[in-house]
Amino acid sequence: MKIGEASRVSGVSARSLRHYEDEGLIVPGRFGNGFRDYCQSTIDRVLVIRSLLESGLPVRLIREVLPGLTDGTAAGTEAVCPEFLHEVRDYRDRLAARIAALSDQRAALDTYLREARRADP
Question: Which residues form the HTH merR-type domain (predicted)?
Fold first, then answer.
């Protein structure tokens, strides 16, 4: 299928599909005229990429683990090297720290708003 249909089917913009290709995450086929040709397995791979990106993983880490997740030879973390898992844990921990900081900021704003309501006649 051409890029427009692949975009519609996957829910990923054509621009993102081109970006995934530029990053080496997908390799669509080509029609004789040079247009990209997306098969179902590439669309399935795009859906995995999208899910991983939405979880916050950077492209560099996705590129590292993606072959084992989409080639059908290994399931889940069995094929993932310990270094990768360490990086994912580190990323998760940094994310948790950011969430905690944002929660503290929200709590401070809530306090401010409560106090401002009390002061408002």
Answer: 1-68
Kind and range of the H or E element at 36? strand 36-37
Query: Considering only CA atoms, which of 56, 55, 3, 47 is closest in space to residue 25?
Result: 47
In whole angstroms, what is the distance from residue 65 CA to residue 95 CA? 19
Class of CATH domain 1-75? mainly alpha
Residue-range domain boundaries for the chain: 1-75, 81-121
Q: What are phi and psi of 12, to 5 degrees?
A: -110, 135
Other Cβ atoms less than 10 A from the Cβ of 50: the count is 15
Res. 120: pLDDT tops 90: no
